[in-house]
Amino acid sequence: MNLLFVANRFPYPPHRGDKLKIYNLARQLSKKHNLYLLTFIQDKKDYKYVHELEKYFKKVEVIYLPFLRSAFNCMTGVFSSLPFQLNYFRSDKFEKLLNEFISDHDIDAIHTQHLRMSQYTSEIKNIPTILDLPDAYSLYWKRRSKLCCSSFQKKLEMLEHKKILEYERVIKKFDMTLVCSNEDKEILENDHDYDSINILPNGIDTSTFKSERHDYSINDRIIFTGNMDYFPNSDAVVYFSNEIFPEVLKKFPDVKFYIVGQKPPSKVLNLQSENIIVTGFVDSIADEYKSSSIAVSPVRVGAGTLNKVLEPMAMGLPVVSSPIGFEGIGAVHGEEILLATNKNEFVDSIVNLLSNQNYRQYIGENGKNLVTQKFSWEKVSDKLENYFYEVCGNEKYTYRNSLQKVG
Asked: Which of 94, 163, 271, 286 qualifies as a FRET site for 69, CA 20 to 30 Å off?
């Protein structure tokens, strides 16, 4: 098949999040299909990476959208019904590029990444369309608004939640909508009375995140990973450092908490102490997992399947997670992962793991088996491929025909 990907972020370097998903899906699907990419570049330095994506996409087209342009879009759209998240990525140039590209190419199906990009593809009628959401975005903003400190910010984020909830109905215009977890699926189905929603979880590069056997004798290092300029991540580490970690230190005064991820804001940098280490960007997150005892995900905002949960599990590292991140993986609490719904449960779970090497090994190895069997990018891309066949019609687009097109 000829598949067009419409992405909100330039998917290289594939460090985290949106970039990671598109890049790895393309690596797998390009083995059987012709792929095309239309996306934004917000930093001109990224132009040098276009050739890296051309290894998997037959053609890559980009529109430069600088931050100041996006900020202007948001300011001028403040009184519109369109959410700020969509105004941020509004571009007449991109819309023109997309229309011309579709006219000039024989595209069998379109993959739209994120609700933000649905504004460009929701009205396309002559080509099957899939909307791929990282989560139920309205749920993300609902949870985020509850954590605001100032009344002004709270009002702004409640307004954004209301706008997104209203706009989210756009999912009904797509042939299929994908989300990462059953929780997101149920929220969208209930809120919008829509049943063409399927699950496409995040995946793991099992060639990178692998371990023959984790060193379970390590019991003095707790790790959290993620882009630190992303609100759910910075909120999570501040919450953990202020509310949970001090209680752990009472039992294990030598344990250290490593906050690993690029672009830490001042509120994260200010957490640094003798026992809290903020690394910033690291060359190998896998190496950080290898030297850790436990991974934690005390995320309070968002939904979906979180890489910060799947990656350490894939390496045999025991994980303690809040419900956000736990819900999307189908794991059993106390067998493959530990679920902590509040501060006390986090403290108890961490202390129990640090106290018992055999317990760390039991949870770690069970978690590794689960993730490697269900969440490799090969398996996730196969799932997406089947969704493409479904929206296109199996009788027309068979596996053999797709191979003939590539050939």
From this structure: 163
